[in-house]
Amino acid sequence: MKKGFLFISCEEAKHICDKSQYNEATLWEKIELNIRYTWCKFTRAYVKKNKQLTSMVKKSKVDCLQNNEREVLKKVFEKELTKQG
Amino acid sequence: MPKHTIEPEKWIDRYSDYLFNYTISRVNDREMAKDLVQDTFVASLKSMKNFKGEASERTWLISILKRKIIDYYRKINSKKGKAEVRMDYNSDEEEGSWLEERVADPFDKTAEDSLVNDELGEAIYACLDKLPNKQAQVFKMKTIQGLETETICNELDITASNLWVIIHRARTTMAECMEKNWFN
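^ inputs. structure came back:
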């Protein structure tokens, strides 16, 4: 729920913080988040945890299959599965 | 009675990303990693009767994958080793062993860093396992693959608002899980 000019709810702050992890928050949203950050301890705690998660994922260099790669793998495997069955 | 059951029809959805991440961090070649994961699934399928159910399916699959990775290195090292001896030690003036000269530099932090990154990757995948399928899928696409919001929405047929709700839930669970498993 929007509280007014420059004031955002905790839920909105979390949403902006999430978008900001993917560089998808606008400058205006970042300003709104920063204002709430200065006085809301829940927002500060969420921002801290969220940033930590982003940094851990980056540091780990974790990787996964692209959807099309997984589909190819699935097709080959299903063929083998049929042979077994 | 076995503690764990085997469900090969669910292997790709459940374990392909985990096995792929495990492999790519060790072979550093995307195509080869995909081949090794595929070989692992096929080999596991053929030796299903050896699964006793004492370890989890994932542990069992990883043990087979490890053997595949070792075989891969044996194969390339037998070729590469010969080539290096031929290229680097064809002169009598050279002293020492080509192998000794390739022993890791004790001040080189690369190996240690890579070990920490591997463990961190394991912890991330352990937490991803706890997410509902949809959340895990969206989180991986957005955070690991770095896909655009629009691309994910089109592929999964969801709205941007849906995506951010899913991302928020996934990130909250992941952050809590990582705090518990990694920091404590």
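Chain B has two domains: 1-90, 105-184. Confidence is low (pLDDT under 50) at residues 85-104 of chain B.
thumbs up if we can close this ticket
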